[in-house]
Predict the 3D structure of the following.
Amino acid sequence: MYSIVFTSHILPLAYDVIDSENDAAWTWFFEQFKIAYGDRETCASFQIEMRVVPSTEYLHMVNNGGRHYTVCLLERKCVCRRFQVDELPCPHAWAVLKGKFLMLEEYWSNYYKPNSVVMTYDVPVYLLPDINDWNIPTYVAEEVVLPPKWKRPPGRPKKKRNKPLSELLQPENQHSCSICRQGGHNKRTCRNAPRRI
């Protein structure tokens, strides 16, 4: 059993991904952070102590403030589900990885690695030429596009459906009695019902 003390700080993952492009942005962010939260020795507002109890080589139990989390490094899973959803080690997995002195980068998804980011922008994006250079077919250029004929009325749409003519010609609410099968009344008000003695 070993314990890891985490000091809350911004992890260098995003800074590591695209370092050269974001130097100015990170500088601005940390200046604003310093203005908002003041100058501190560590950029920390709280500390978390996590106790890690290894079950097997890949399965570990992490105790975080009275709560227990199971971390499986082989399947890259944690009970909190952040490890699976984000495909990045959650704080519980970080505690296990730091305690075992493993490389954290091996447990990131390939999407977060610098090579994948570079490959994203590897495909060229061609700009459209000037509108004067467009080759538009004559049948498209001659077609006139008119605005819609009907304007949507204001307010909430009506709930009643449009009935066909056959339904409109039928008389409404034609009730019939279940005893005598005649219309105009129901079995409670039926005068043709056999009388009980």
